[in-house]
């Protein structure tokens, strides 16, 4: 008679640990694993260790996915029970939770192969212990054009940001001209915030003087070097400029940004009436921050304070959207569509042959929406498939997994409805593209093209009820008929109005509550 195999002690310990992990992640545990956990082991096998946060130090519990859309998350049965270690895992020790929802119409007509879904991810940051460690660098444009009220406002805003830092948060102030220069501390390093360092930093800020050119890439490279020396979990920067990046080519800035990609988040601001939106948008796109323009210097203090307070409220860094797709399914695009439009399509980091992680930056208690569009193999009437599994990857954990499905049918009552969220963000993306195309055509003197594109933008904004966007567009066009998209280009507008419109085009509004299923 064949005797059942007796699990080893390590296999029993691994099964027991699997149960603990599943409880933490809200997953069900297979019955066979529970049975193994109740047995007595027979001897040692291969050794691998866990950290106290519950993830394998050399990789999580194995995750494989077959082409039919099934995922096997069974922990290896040859895993040794961990010895107690106090490895730091920010997302777990700070009790950061994530929730996700999929918004889609799962039904496709036979012959159709494009499926769109909006993924809404909400971070529930419940800090029951110390907040994540943080480090922040503030870059202040001190070029010659900053003389007067703009520099005075920048000083006041920087001081407000310094006062908003928690004790022990590492910080530094950088002066930006044709090169990046340390303001505080004098040496190239960062110091923890305290009453003493805040007072010294404020004195150094008061001594700032305007003079020189503008090479934003050099400021970012100094900031990168400063933050590279920090072990902080949240690494953040603020960049303020009032002019064009005149002392540096666009290619040089692009190279600097590429060096900084993935290392810290940067919020950029233009002040006054002579800055350019293009470098600010490039910074926001690459470093996953916000970009805005303030024509009134008096608004800068509140803005810097709000940015810094938001950073102090962050609960998780290096959060990714993890996407699995089966063989034959192609991701057409993946975009963050709220609160700002950021194209993530080409930024996926492969985890395995069919899984990639897409960076989403730092999170506090907030919601972000993502638009995932896929091309799938053709199906027959009645076919059903899982075409994507989406989860949140943070701190070694995989949370809030949801699936995207497709059902093929000839029932038009099922295929005709358009999901409100997908329609909403498709419209907002089209609106942004129309604005960018119109501004580019206007800058190159193509009046007819610019008029048509900006007219379409006004029409889209009016149809969607985006009064603020219509009002911003009215800075660059005279609106004759919103519904028809009839406009005339303004001849007497300020140059900064086009820059403000360009930045506004990347911001989005969420769907109204009554429109959500």
From TrEMBL:
Gene3D superfamilies documented for this protein: 1.20.120.1690, 2.60.40.3670, von Willebrand factor, type A domain (3.40.50.410)
Bilayer-spanning residue ranges: none
**Where in this chain does the record put each VWFA domain?**
135-315
- Organism for this UniProt entry: Amycolatopsis samaneae
Q: What is the name listed in the Swiss-Prot or TrEMBL entry for this protein?
A: VWA domain-containing protein
Give any Pfam family that matches. VWA_3_C
Q: Where is this region: Disordered?
A: 37-86
List, alphabetically, the InterPro entries matched: CLCR, VWA_3_C, VWF_A, vWFA_dom_sf
